[in-house]
Amino acid sequence: MISIEKPEDLISVSLHNIFNYRVNEWEFIRRVKDWNKQVVLYLKPFYPLTIIFQGEEIRFEQKDTPKADLKVTLEFNAMLDIAYGKLNPIMALLTGKLKIKGIFRIKTLLNFMNIFLYTMKVVAEDPTQNYFEMNKSLR
């Protein structure tokens, strides 16, 4: 069983919800357990957040770290567009909305994309979790 640290800030709460929403529990465990990587996610215009995958734990630190295996900078609106299928990650990368330091660590990059981007899309497709679209339609 993977334990995810109780979040204390906005971005961590969002990631906690994304990581806890799993279609395939065993696939998630297989990807995360003993991965032992640090990924910095800088969701613009907010702040950098280091996600620490260690053993059977996922922890969050509100800071950038020079020891990160991967650094991902993503505009908030681009993240939503990727989640709702309006933008694919390759186009986000080519247009500068997504920047990745450590992009040549292909195995690490693909694993993080499967953990984060794929799960984020699944959450966005669930009508009970589709807060952004529901609120947008009320305006």
Please outline what is shown here.
With 139 residues, the chain is of the alpha/beta class. It is 44% helix and 23% strand.
Which key features would you list for this structure?
single chain, 139 residues, alpha/beta, Nonspecific Lipid-transfer Protein, Chain A, six-stranded mixed beta sheet, 6 helices, 44% helix, 23% strand, globular, disordered C terminus
Description of the structure:
The protein is of the alpha/beta class and 139 residues long. It has a single domain (3-125), classed as 2-Layer Sandwich (Nonspecific Lipid-transfer Protein, Chain A). The protein contains six helices and six strands. A six-stranded mixed sheet has the order 1-4-3-2-5-6. It starts with a strand and ends with a helix.
**What is the CATH C level class, in words?**
Alpha Beta
The side-by-side strand order for the widest beta sheet comes to 1-4-3-2-5-6
Portion in strands: 15-25%
User: Can you name the CATH architecture?
Assistant: 2-Layer Sandwich
Q: Can you tell me the CATH superfamily? A: SCP2 sterol-binding domain
N to C succession of SSEs: EHHEEEEHHEHH
- Intertermini distance: 41 Å
